[in-house]
Design a protein that fits this description.
Elements: E1 3-8, H1 16-23, E2 29-32, E3 41-45, E4 48-52, E5 64-67, E6 72-73, H2 75-87, E7 95-98, E8 102-103, H3 107-119, H4 131-139, H5 152-173, H6 181-195, E9 199-200, H7 202-212, E10 216-219, H8 248-252, E11 259-267, E12 270-272, H9 285-294, E13 306-308, E14 310-311, H10 312-322, E15 326-330, E16 340-349, E17 352-354, H11 361-366, E18 368-375, H12 392-405, E19 409-413, E20 421-423
Guanosine-5'-diphosphate (GDP) binds next to helix 1 and strand 3.
Length: 428
């Protein structure tokens, strides 16, 4: 079992960080393979509560942690995260960052905000971290990689070219002030001096580990429904490689043949941050109640998350897209006080029942949920540690989701802390 990929099956924030923290001790390497610090992975363990944006959630288990070539790295954010972890007693000496990782530069968050403004009513609702523009530059061959910061002379030459180009975009397209070369150069050289000990060829580390038969967990960011190709385009994120399982091998520089298993993380209901269609969304008081029960506020931006009932149409789609052989179902406890719990089992679009997730934005936006109602269990599940400990109605709810998705639940989350989970079948 060389590499296991952990992906988000919905629109992000499914509890990926929490599940990786739970299983990390059984692996030798935990690696992030996509996205940037738009991700926010919460971990609650014996050291406290942590919000990680770039560092993999395996960092608490003293395993080797890798930020792969597929991640875009904001050096200031990474330094901040390392310092926060060290200050709280977490050793970061086993953290390695790919020298091929693209760098988030000062113009990226400016362009992110300015572009959202230009889009007006069509704004994506991005996290504003500059991650989208950093990936756009990567694809446009206008990016800088961490290895480009190493040598002062060649960094200066590359920065002069890219900054000259970007300043024209900032001033002429977005009507923003130009950025200063000397200041940017000095700041990023300082970042480099601080990060240099962590930067290396991480694909070599991963490939060697696979050669030894070590186990690698590839920690996904975001969710499959935010994928550029397969998500609810154009309300998606711009990560290349994809945050789906298909991007995992590329994002750490190993062969896809070394991935043996994909586990999908699903929340027991549905959330989304930012704009874009969400067929099972609950508006008004019902949605507010779910948000308050789950304290559904973004880990990265603090924005209220849009809430709704579990969407089994979208869920089945992401199971198939990723090839998930099993799932972890998190946050079952958030539903403890609901008298009736609904599942969206199909959509009605233009008077027709639809059971496959549509590709067209217009169709998803027009989709009306077809509900199946299940009785709530009206008792606390957080203390449950075996599946049989769950109230009968909670067991039925989990079983119904498994059957709709066509994948068994290996883990059921009943609280945010590391041990507040039912391990039905160990992932590793
Ligand atoms: P990620 O981005 O997928 O890692 O998820 P986030 O950390 O953004 O959001 C998930 C939230 O759910 C975090 O606040 C977690 O602490 C919390 N969480 C994860 N699993 C559970 C669970 O089983 N029960 C409860 N109550 N909270 C959970
Ligand atoms: P984790 O890893 C939830 C969403 C944003 C926005 C869209 C594009 O914590 O699950 P971007 O800043 O990426 O250009 O914004 O994608 N988004 C996420 N939503 N969880 C995330 O990550 C997200 N990363 C991006 O809200 O709708
Ligand atoms: Mg998150």
């Amino acid at each position: 079992m060389p590499a296991v990929v952990v992906i988000g099956g919905q629109w992000g924030d499914e509890g990926k960080g929490r599940i990786v923290d739970l299983i990390a001790r059984k692996a030798q390497i935990i690696a992030r393979y996509s996205a940037g610090h738009n991700a926010g992975h919460t971990v609650v363990n014996d050291l406290g509560k942590f919000a990680l944006h770039l560092v993999p959630a395996g960092i608490f288990s003293e395993m080797i942690c890798v930020i792969g070539n597929g991640v875009v790295v904001d050096p200031a954010e990474l330094i901040h995260e390392i310092e926060m972890l060290e200050a709280r007693g977490v050793n970061t000496q086993r953290l390695f960052v790919s020298d091929r990782a693209q760098v988030v530069m000062p113009w990226h968050p400016i362009i992110d905000a300015a572009d959202e403004e230009l889009r007006g009513a069509h704004a994506v609702g991005t996290t504003g971290k500059g991650v989208g523009p950093a990936f756009i530059d990567k694809v446009a061959r206008m990016g800088l990689r961490l290895s480009d910061l190493a040598d002062a002379a060649s960094f200066a030459e590359r920065l002069r070219f890219v900054l000259g180009y970007k300043n024209r975009v900032l001033t002429q397209l977005y009507n923003r002030a130009p950025l200063d070369f000397d200041d940017t150069f000095a700041r990023y050289r300082e970042h480099w001096a601080r990060l240099e000990p962590y930067v290396t060829d991480t694909s070599h580390i991963c490939q060697e580990a696979i050669g030894r038969g070590d186990r690698i967990v590839l920690e996904g960011a975001q969710g499959s429904l935010l994928d550029l190709d397969m998500g609810t385009y154009d309300y998606v994120t711009s990560s290349v490689p994809s945050s789906t399982a298909a991007g995992a091998a590329l994002g750490v520089g190993i062969s896809p043949l070394d991935v043996s298993r994909v586990v999908g993380i699903y929340k027991a209901y549905q959330t989304r941050v930012g704009n874009g269609p969400m067929p099972s969304e609950l508006r008004g008081a019902e949605g507010d109640r779910l948000r308050e029960c789950g304290q559904e506020y973004g880990t990265t931006t603090g924005r209220p998350r849009r809430c709704g009932w579990f969407d089994a149409v979208a869920g089945r789609y992401s199971i198939e897209l990723n090839g998930c052989s099993s799932i972890a179902l998190t946050r079952l406890d958030v539903l403890d006080t609901f008298e009736t719990i609904r599942i969206c089992v199909a959509y009605e679009i233009g008077g027709r029942r639809v059971e496959r997730f549509p590709s067209s934005h217009a169709a998803i936006a027009a989709a009306q949920p077809v509900w199946e109602d299940l009785p709530g269990w009206l008792s606390q599940t957080t203390g449950c540690r075996r599946f049989e400990d769950l109230p009968a109605a909670a067991m039925s709810y989990v079983r119904r989701i498994e059957s709709l998705l066509g994948a068994p639940a290996d883990i059921v989350g009943v609280g945010p802390e590391r041990n507040e989970a039912i391990i039905v079948s160990p992932i590793l």
